[in-house]
Amino acid sequence: MEIHESEDHEFVDIHIERRRVIWISAVVLAGIIALLVLTMDKVRELGERIVTPREYIPPKSIPKGIEIPDVYDIKGYAAASPKAFDRFLAKQDFREIFARLQHFLYINEVDGVVPSFQLLRQGSDWQTIDEPPFALPPEESWESMVNTLRLLQEEIVPRIGPVTVLSGWRTDRYNAKAGGSKTSKHMHFCGLDMVPERDFTREELLPILRDIHRKQGKKWNMGLGIYKGVRFHVDTCGYRRW
């Protein structure tokens, strides 16, 4: 009689388990390699952001015969123009400082929220109080503006569209002569007064801004002020509303 020996099941189980371990190890190794590649890409991108300077690029030359005003009328408010800003930079050789500010905003990914020069507008009444239309904040204050710009970028611009800044950084002197609060967030480079570029009525704009403040204000430590017409104030240096 022919005798058939039964298969060694224990050997088969060990063989299957070994293949399973090898397969799992291969998957884990592939995941680690993919993670390393992604991490290296991010490190390279961050390195490029940190070491790549953002130099001040002067405005393009103005064609002959075209007159660019020093002052714009923006929804009833006076706003100093880029031409006036370029003259401000040249007057005291502020270009290097402004280039550093632009680079700071760039590495914090908020350089495209509004044109950088608008952040340095002191206000819309500089002609009345005989003060410069622009001023440069001290470098230690720059960080305060990052969250305010992120608030614009993530909450306000998606709801109302682009904005034009009428007042950003203010010197103590300007703020006092303009009748600003002694605790004004403009003097900390944290507050911005602005108007929407789109044609909102006051009745259309206010409910949107108040809705943003009600739903997202605490998260951002948001201050919201409503002024005449469609001008409004935003900062991220104290949750409040007026």
From TrEMBL:
Domain of life: Bacteria
Keyword list, A-Z: Membrane, Transmembrane, Transmembrane helix
Membrane-crossing segments per the record: 21-40
Record keyword Transmembrane present: yes
Domain Peptidase M15A C-terminal: 162-212
Pfam families, per database record: Peptidase_M15_3
Signal peptide: none
Record protein name field: Peptidase M15
Species, as recorded: Microbulbifer donghaiensis
Upper classification of the organism: Bacteria, Pseudomonadati, Pseudomonadota, Gammaproteobacteria, Cellvibrionales
